From TrEMBL:
Binding-site residues for L-tryptophan, renumbered to this chain: 135
Gene transcribed to yield this protein: trpS
Species for this entry: Rhodococcus antarcticus
Major localization listed first in the record, in broad terms: cytoplasm
Ranges spanned by the short sequence motif 'KMSKS' region, renumbered to the chain: 194-198
Entry's Gene Ontology molecular function annotations: tryptophan-tRNA ligase activity
Catalytic reaction equation(s): tRNA(Trp) + L-tryptophan + ATP = L-tryptophyl-tRNA(Trp) + AMP + diphosphate + H(+)
Name of protein: Tryptophan--tRNA ligase
Keywords for the protein's UniProt record, in alphabetical order: Aminoacyl-tRNA synthetase, ATP-binding, Cytoplasm, Ligase, Nucleotide-binding, Protein biosynthesis
Length: 331
């Protein structure tokens, strides 16, 4: 079975619809057909300042959501990144074969650093994609189910794997450039940019754990256009197209069918129905998350077992890497 690795940051009290439709839904599907490793990437989270108590809570909330969404620890290995020290160790080696200019060309870094002011942005934020490469290469992953927004980071991972293999001898699987992802979901208030935990305003984000009334209001207030026609046209009708994408992804009905259904009807009807299909999805999810959070010790035990399993793979890759580089064996 192909090996799959993906991660998500514990940087919000809830995952949003972009996380789910762009990536997490594929995580659940891929555990059936692949040897999947999924991690909550708390090392990535601290590339921007985090309150310790909030981070700890969000790490558990993130794991609870993954379990509630259907990640099954009999099929997939679910763990927290900081509990597998090999991630930080391999990242160091990869940092040393990454060009300064190469890292500086990453658009996510440029976006996030410019939002913070470049003097405030941390060196950790700069090397974020290198740590991501370490996550992937440690597990010799063939496939990486991430959103379209991660394409450039995946390309860097492939470059670093190839460079290391050429310099030191074959060590890492070069992951497929194919993005195993779903839709790119846009900010409801600004449908020219992606829905994002760190960049979107609260009104632009649909959180999976929002109360139904809250998400219905956000969807009702979503920016559309001055026209009246419900038509999928990402250039001219970015907002309406985003709502159609969301409806289609959640209801399983093709966009073309939805266009017919809403022909001659207003945007209001579409928005009402998007809110309804969303509520059908999130109501049982919220209950399941509450169930996991009610017993944090049990949740921590599930994660400890995942980390144990992850370490058996990660430590073998790290040992091979250290040997290639010329580090002395630990006797
Ligand atoms: P941040 O803004 O802090 O980067 P994020 O909202 O992008 O947060 P991440 O934890 O970085 O969330 O990403 C988790 C996964 O969700 C990644 O695989 C990413 O590609 C995917 N993803 C994030 N936003 C979207 C989106 N709007 N549409 C589709 N996929 C997305
Ligand atoms: Mg992101």
């Amino acid at each position: 079975a192909p090996r799959v690795l993906s991660g998500i940051q514990p940087t919000a009290d809830s995952f949003h619809l972009g996380n789910y439709l762009g990536a997490l839904r594929q995580w659940v599907a891929l555990q059936e057909t692949s040897d999947a490793f999924y991690c909550v990437v708390d090392l990535h989270a601290i590339t921007v300042a985090q309150d310790p108590a909030v981070l700890r809570h969000r790490t558990r909330v993130s794991a609870a959501q993954l379990l509630a969404l259907g990640i099954d620890t009999d099929r997939a290995t679910l763990f927290v990144q900081s509990q597998v020290p090999e991630h930080a160790q391999l990242a160091w080696v990869l940092n040393c074969i990454t060009g300064f200019g190469e890292a500086g060309r990453m658009t996510q870094f440029k976006d996030k650093a410019s939002r913070q002011g470049s003097d405030r942005a941390s060196v950790g934020l700069f090397t974020y994609p290198v740590l991501q490469a370490a996550d992937i290469l440690l597990y010799q992953a063939d496939q990486v189910p991430v959103g379209e927004d991660q394409r450039q980071h995946l390309e860097l991972t492939r470059d670093l794997a190839g460079r290391f293999n050429t310099t030191y001898g074959p060590t890492f699987t070069v992951p497929s450039p194919h993005i195993v992802s779903g839709a790119k979901i846009l900010d409801l208030q600004d449908p020219t940019s992606k829905m994002s935990k760190s960049a979107s305003s609260p009104a632009g984000i649909v959180d999976l754990l929002d109360e139904p009334a809250v998400s219905a209001k956000k969807i009702r207030s979503a920016v559309t256009d001055t026209g009246r026609e419900v038509r999928f046209d990402p250039q001219e009708k970015a907002g309406v197209s985003n709502l159609l994408t969301i409806h289609s992804a959640l209801s399983g009905r093709p966009v073309a069918e939805l266009e017919l259904e809403y022909a001659g009807r207003g945007y209001g009807d579409l928005k009402k129905d998007v809110a309804a299909v969303l509520t059908d999805f999130t109501t049982p999810l919220r209950a399941a998350v509450d169930g996991y959070l009610a017993d944090p010790a049990q949740l921590d035990a599930i994660l400890a077992e995942g980390a144990e399993r992850a370490r058996t793979v990660a430590s073998a890759t790290l040992a091979a890497t250290f040997d290639r580089v010329g580090f002395l064996p630990r006797v």
